[in-house]
Amino acid sequence: MIITIDGPTASGKSTVGRLLAKELKYYYLYTGLLYRALAHVLMKDHGYTLATIADPEMQLVDQILDTKKFVYFYDPSDRERIAYDGVDITDQLKGDTIGHGASLVSTNQQVRNRLDKLQRAIANDHDVVIDGRDAGSVVFPHAEHKFFLTASEDERAYRWYKQQLDRGVQTTISDAREFIHSRDTRDSSREIAPLTIPIGAQTIDATHLNVVQVLEHLKKSLF
Ligand code: C5P
User: Fold this and answer.
1) 23 near 93, Cβ under 8 Å?
2) CB under 6 Å to ligand 1: residues?
3) 85: left (phi over 0), alpha (psi -120 to 50) or beta
4) Nearest C-alpha to atom 14 of ligand 1 is from which residue?
5) Which of 20, 47, 49, 89 has a CA that sits 20 to 30 A from residue 102's CA?
6) Region 74-83: what's the mean pLDDT?
7) pTM over 0.90, yes/no
């Protein structure tokens, strides 16, 4: 069974997706990590910058995404990870520069085609919860269950602000608002696979719901 959870940045879909997968004993695929890992390798190993990463050399992208080198794995007792060339790079993928690079490289249709294919290959043979931007609309349009998880821009800015402080990164609420607004604008207004509510998805507005309440809501809709 395939369950997709799409939604904007800081809507809480990863936290809830991870918990849902764990409860159901499903595999969990955090697709943002694939985009982040590709952006990281392009920037760190191949000299790409935020100015150039939206248009990478596709032969190089294919080399990077070779599944012998680029490996996604999910361990329910820990969390999802990515190894590249035998080295676990997950801890290097959290920062906002990588997030920005991911969001730029994700506007490239050829890159998306490659990562769509990779997502389908990873999901094959698993019952899976997939957390993405176009999982229910483009990558898995035939998913049995589709959710679109959102929250107001202010609430998501506040959650992102708290996340930064928890990580020891100093920021302000107004920076958080600007960050969320610009990421939303880029993800929703891009020509290719923009963030939209997939046909057949159930929308959950989590502005006034905590993680446990959202999880209960999802489970109720499933069973
Ligand atoms: O989910 P996360 O914030 O880690 O993703 C980083 C960026 O990668 C997003 O802002 C989005 O632009 C892009 N992305 C995407 N499609 C996905 C997952 C992530 O375009 N399925």
Assistant:
1) no
2) 9, 31-32, 35-36, 99, 102-103, 106, 132-134, 183, 187
3) left
4) 32
5) 20
6) 92
7) yes
